[in-house]
Design goal:
alpha/beta, binds guanosine-5'-monophosphate, 4-stranded mixed beta sheet, 5-stranded parallel beta sheet, globular, 41% helix, 8 helices, 211 residues
Amino acid sequence: MGKRGLLFVISGPSGAGKGTTREALMRGDPGLAFCVSVTTRRPRAGEIPGVNYTFVDVADFRKSEAQGEFLESAQVYGNLYGTPRAPVEHLMESGQDVLLEKDVQGALAIQRRMPHAILVFIAPPSVDELKARILKRGTESAEDLECRLDCALREMDETRHFDYVVVNYDIDRSTQVLEAIVIAERHRVRHSNPAQECLEGKSGHDALPAS
Ligand code: 5GP
């Protein structure tokens, strides 16, 4: 059996910049596959079905949930979100590293199911900065903003369950740190040990991961 891919989960409060850093990370690393979530939220301007999310109605979401199609599902800010199980498992089984972006409860639910998942928390530099970023995005009503801020404070209290915390002062810097985390994890002995495989004659130097 070939080597199983790694599972990276990027999380953190809304407005911390996890979406932007995740996109920047993926542009620089074609070896990471992103699995799109299913949501009952309405698409925002510019969002593309199948690229940003699979947009479904509540009935279809509940049907998929009842059929056990989600690795985890949660209600976030009044909408339902779910991580389809099959694409994540197929990609990992084929040796592909997978990247997910979840709210904190989703990340922790995935960690319970898949203890080898690598959890990265993207934190804002301060609560004031977080508020400014959510306001600047301008996609939320005043009520939603209040709810997202409340939730952000609770999420910031969960960092101890994560493997890494990246304080997002600057997107370029945070992306570099994320790239470093991905490279380091690919070289972790518990994930893969090409040197040992060399000794055992299973593979040649070609199997050593490229840095
Ligand atoms: P938004 O509606 O702003 O795209 O996302 C709202 C929140 O839901 C974000 O924190 C986002 O990371 C999270 N989210 C997106 N997809 C999923 C999912 O499949 N499961 C969970 N638990 N959270 C998700």
